[in-house]
Structure formats: structure tokens, C-alpha cells
Amino acid sequence: MSANMLKQERVAFIDKRLQELYPNPPVPLDHSDPYTLLVAVLLSAQCTDERVNLVTPALFALADNPFDMAKESVETIREIIKPCGLSPQKSKAIRGLSEILINEHGGEVPQDFESLERLPGVGHKTASVVMAQSFGVPSFPVDTHIHRLAQRWGLTRGRNVSETERDLKRVFKKSRWNDLHLQIIFYGREFCSARGCDGRVCEICTTCYPTRKHPKRVNKP
Ligand code: SF4
Question: Using a 6 Å cutoff on CB, does residue 69 contact ligand 1?
Fold first, then answer.
């Protein structure tokens, strides 16, 4: 049996393998511009992308820009987005951020982290997704799934998503951040669920850690 890979070797292997498996990773959330992406990402908190994609056609038929959205009541928005969960908070946030975009940004989604993270309902991860997928700015949005895989692959010992993001940005080339974030998500969905694996089953772990004998402990974010 060959030895476990060194960290640098794991990084190179994972980078190459994910690129082979998912060469052009599509953006999972349906949208037509930065505003509709921002709203879709906000809706995806604690909800699947599939469900968000079922809900957004009706929402965007009603309003696909901040000016139209600000004319709608929170209750109307809430009724439509109910299947996504957390609808009281999310509907207020969508209405609130639409007003801020109109009043402070000329109706445009700002292209900087600070302004984005000041919007209601928008945290660092949501801002990172918008910066990466709408504006092409290298970002590494880390959610609980990426946090889990990065630990199982020995890329970080981060105790939370911020530490994991810092470590992933250190080990991977900046030009790969935006695609890698999606590629790790796709790999996780296909092979590595939150439960049901002890870190010794599929290709990446068995290649990186051929001698692994015990389940890899994962720090909860
Ligand atoms: S072996 Fe398990 S933990 Fe490792 S990547 Fe595969 S499914 Fe995930």
C-alpha cells in the first residue's frame, strides 16, 4: 500500500481531479443578472438550490429588479418564497435590500464586499457568491459542505467557515478559486454527503489517504 500524500500532493491531485470531473461547472442558481443572483443566493440559505429554482420564476415574474420589488409588500414576497423556509426574514431582507440598492446604489448591485455585506440578509458567503459568479472577482465562498470536505481532504483544520476559507485561499491558486468552490460542491453532492461516510470510501480520500484507518473527525462549523 502506498503512503498517504503530502499536503502539496493532495492539493495538486484534488485540483486536477475536480477539473477533470467538472470542467465547466455551471452556476446552480437560475438568474439573469447580479440582482436576481443576489436574491436567489439569499433564498438558498438553509434551502436546496433546486427548491430555490422552483420558486424564483414566480418571484422574478413579479419583480426582477429592485425598483419593482420595492413596490411589492413584504407579505406578497413572503407568500411566494414560503417553500424556501425562513420566509419572514427572507422576505423582509429582499424588500429591504431592494430599497437600499435604489437609495444608495442607483438600483445596481454594488461590486464590493463591504457594501454587499451591509445589505440585510447578506453575509460574507452570499457576498462572495455574487462577487465570484456575477462579477468574476476571485472569491472562495465556503458553506458547511465545503468546510466538511476540506477537512476530510486534510486541506484545513479550520474551526469555522472563515478559517477554512482562509486556508483554501492559501493552498489553491487564485485563478482557480471561483471554479473550485463550485467543483467541490458538485463533488460533495455526488459522492460525499454529510452523513454516511467515514472518509475512506471514494476516490479523493482513498487516493490522498490510502492508509487511513479511522474516520476523519470533522470540526463542526
Ligand atoms: S471518502 Fe467519504 S469523506 Fe472522502 S470524499 Fe469520499 S465520500 Fe467524502
Answer: no
Summarize pLDDT for 149-165 with one digit per residue, the tens.
999 999 999 999 999 99
CB distance 150 to ligand 1 below 6 Å: no
Domain ranges of the chain: 7-25+141-208, 34-133
- pLDDT on residue 194: 62
Q: Which fold has domain 34-133?
A: Endonuclease III; domain 1 (1.10.340)
Q: Which residues in the chain belong to E strands, given as ranges? A: none
Q: Which residues does 216 contact at the CB level (< 8 Å), separation at least 6? A: 151, 152, 154, 198, 199, 205, 209
Which three cell numbers mark 22?
467538472
Chain centroid, CA 214 distance in Å: 29
Q: List Cβ neighbours of 106 (8 Å cut-off, separation of 6 or more).
A: none
Q: How many CB atoms are located within 10 Å of the residue 108 CB?
A: 14
Q: Would you say the CB of residue 204 lies under 6 angstroms from ligand 1?
A: yes
- The matching CATH number, chosen from 3.40.50.300, 3.30.379.10, 1.10.1670.10, 1.10.10.10, for 7-25+141-208 is 1.10.1670.10
Quote the pTM value.
Answer: 0.92
Closest ligand 1 atom, residue 148 Cα: 3
Distances in whole angstroms, Cα of residue 42 to Cα of each of 84, 119, 197, 201: 10, 11, 29, 33
Rounded CA separation 215/198 (Å): 4
C-alpha dist (Å) from residue 158 to 27, 112, 163, 219: 26, 25, 5, 7
